[in-house]
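Ops channel
N.P.: pipeline sanity check, posting one input/output pair.
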């Protein structure tokens, strides 16, 4: 069975999201297919990967809807973030507090 794809109504700021789910019903992709006026479009897609126990172990943010331009990537093994990568050298303020 192929992944299921659904679109949501526009958010308050005008973004339209398209969601992709795996065969277990878990969200594997959240893509902003229409960007609202005045909204920062630096991240247009977020993909989520799951381990064999069904837990999130990898989240990747992309600058494009095709998923080819990585903005950042976070690995989480057993509830502990083990790797964070930022391709643009920008570290969010909430992560600065952790390091």
């Amino acid at each position: 069975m192929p992944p299921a794809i659904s679109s949501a109504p526009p958010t308050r700021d005008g973004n339209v999201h398209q969601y992709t789910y795996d065969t277990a019903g878990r969200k594997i992709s959240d893509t902003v297919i229409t960007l609202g006026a005045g909204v920062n479009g630096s991240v247009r897609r977020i993909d989520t990967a799951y381990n064999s126990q069904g837990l999130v172990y990898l989240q990747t943010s992309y600058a494009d809807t095709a998923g080819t331009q990585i903005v950042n990537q976070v690995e989480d093994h057993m509830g502990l973030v083990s790797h964070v990568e930022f391709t643009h050298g920008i570290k969010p303020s909430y992560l600065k507090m952790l390091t």
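N.P.: looks fine end to end. Residues 14 and 37 are 7 Å apart (CA to CA).
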